[in-house]
């Protein structure tokens, strides 16, 4: 595979050199092979009008660029169509050492990924294709056997992508690549374990994207809002949640580094809002307080939104930290909270939320008292959930809507997520039949009724109870 070292690098989006400021335009280096990173289109929430930046691929690009071994190019299928992908392959495939594809379960992304890879595989110069991402992390063996998949990487990709590329270049034995699995139908090769902790995030190579394409008018935040991910993992035990694969390990940017990057994005792109897509932005209360204080001290004048667990607020109270006060003072306009259920048995025994209905109401009232928009999500149709317990969820929603400002509410149908928690096993035992192939999972739609005990009436009521200020595209 070392023959790739002699290939000329074709033109690509400018990328920062090692040690350069994120987004600094330095360009590709002649003579280096190229890594193609592909983010397939997501059919999100019935053609939802906005899409966020492909942070999963930005985190992969960073160690690759800093290594100095390869040039990196990135294709976002949410921004560009099939014809653009063909032209992208025309430009970059001959110099490519591999194609990295990130996939999640649901949203149609797997199907789009298979279409993209099929187009690449029809070309004689197609290099190995490696899959990673949330779906691979829970169903690596099933993914690895697919004929379009040459390899998979499980666990945090930033821990393994550079080593995988080094193995392709003949610089590292494949058995030393963290999380690697190769299954050609006759033999299986696996690498060493890939730990769930990812280290410090951030310093994203923004120049791989046209950042302006991702700025949006979000009525719950600001007219020029950009999405951002500053942490990975979660410390809570919610049984249905994908974050459990990180084994309750949490990695995050330092508050100062995050503030530096946000200030840079504001200066260069004129953003006035940030919407964090961290699983829980407030796991580290000191980091969260430092971020809030930094926004005020630097006079950044930004509106922002993030996800929070109700227990974060209760922990802050116990420590005497004025968390909600600082959040409000720093310009936070919206807090997203997964409530899941209005019934104490479901919260305790099924979801393992470590919270009660009474405390949820208390926390939500506190959020409203600080004039922050609460956005609360719920799930109905858990295995073994009774009609009376579902009714408790809807009565809780009605109580929350008495608050001022009136919160957003979103009700999801329970969708069994492969390999995550006891709920998966319970769903299968109660008659849920999971897909048995990658193609099957490409048709998995967690916004519709997927379980035999969930009726269309249940789905219709959930849609009716969903009240958001930002609606899907019409």
UniProtKB/TrEMBL annotation:
GO terms for cellular component: cytosol. Its cofactor is [4Fe-4S] cluster. GO terms for molecular function: 4 iron, 4 sulfur cluster binding; catalytic activity; cobalamin binding; metal ion binding. Residues 221-433 form the Radical SAM core domain. It holds the Pfam family Radical_SAM. Residues 32-175 form the B12-binding domain. Gene3D superfamilies: Cobalamin-binding domain, tm_1862 like domain. The keyword Nucleus does not apply. Keywords: Iron, Iron-sulfur, Metal-binding, Methyltransferase, S-adenosyl-L-methionine, Transferase. This is Radical SAM protein.
């Amino acid at each position: 595979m070392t023959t790739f070292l002699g290939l000329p690098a074709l033109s690509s989006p400018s990328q920062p050199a090692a040690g350069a400021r994120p987004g600094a335009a330095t360009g590709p280096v002649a003579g280096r092979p190229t890594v193609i990173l592909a983010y397939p289109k997501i059919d999100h929430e019935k053609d939802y009008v906005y899409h966020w930046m492909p942070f999963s691929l930005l985190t992969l690009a960073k160690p690759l660029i800093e290594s100095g071994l390869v040039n990196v190019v990135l294709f976002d299928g949410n921004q560009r169509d099939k014809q653009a992908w063909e032209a992208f392959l025309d430009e970059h495939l001959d110099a490519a050492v591999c194609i990295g594809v990130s996939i999640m379960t649901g949203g149609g992304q797997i199907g789009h990924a298979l279409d993209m890879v099929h187009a690449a595989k029809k070309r004689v110069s197609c290099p190995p294709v490696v899959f990673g991402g949330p779906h691979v992390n829970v169903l690596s063996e099933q993914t690895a056997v697919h004929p379009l998949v040459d390899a998979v990487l499980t666990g945090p990709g930033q821990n393994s992508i550079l080593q995988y590329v080094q193995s392709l270049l003949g610089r590292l034995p494949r058995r030393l690549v963290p999380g690697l699995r190769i299954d050609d139908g006759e033999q299986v090769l696996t690498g060493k374990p890939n730990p769930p902790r990812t280290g410090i995030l951030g310093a994203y190579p923004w120049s791989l994207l046209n950042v302006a394409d991702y700025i949006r008018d979000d009525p719950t935040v600001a007219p020029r809002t950009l999405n951002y991910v500053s942490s990975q993992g979660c410390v809570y035990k919610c049984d249905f949640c994908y974050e459990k694969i990180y084994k309750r390990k949490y990695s995050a940017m330092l508050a100062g580094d995050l503030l530096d990057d946000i200030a840079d994005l504001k200066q260069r792109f004129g953003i006035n809002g940030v919407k964090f897509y961290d699983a829980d932005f407030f796991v580290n209360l000191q980091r969260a307080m430092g971020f809030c204080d930094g926004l005020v001290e630097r006079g950044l004048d930004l509106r922002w939104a993030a996800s929070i667990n109700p227990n974060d607020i209760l922990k802050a109270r116990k420590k005497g930290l004025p968390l909600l006060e600082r959040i409000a003072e720093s310009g936070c306009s919206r807090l997203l909270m997964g409530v899941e259920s209005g019934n104490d048995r479901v919260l305790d025994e099924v979801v393992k939320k470590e919270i009660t209905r009474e405390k949820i109401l208390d926390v939500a009232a506190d959020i409203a008292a600080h004039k922050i928009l609460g956005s609360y999500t719920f799930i109905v149709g858990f295995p073994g959930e009774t009609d009376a317990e579902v009714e408790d969820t809807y009565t809780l929603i009605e109580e929350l809507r008495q608050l001022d400002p009136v919160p957003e509410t979103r009700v999801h149908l329970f969708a069994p997520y492969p390999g995550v928690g006891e709920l998966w096993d319970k769903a299968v035992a109660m008659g849920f039949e999971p897909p048995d192939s990658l193609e099957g999972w490409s048709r998995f739609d967690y916004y519709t009724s997927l379980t035999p005990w969930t009726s269309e009436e249940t789905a219709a009521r959930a849609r009716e109870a969903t009240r958001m200020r930002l609606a899907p595209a019409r």
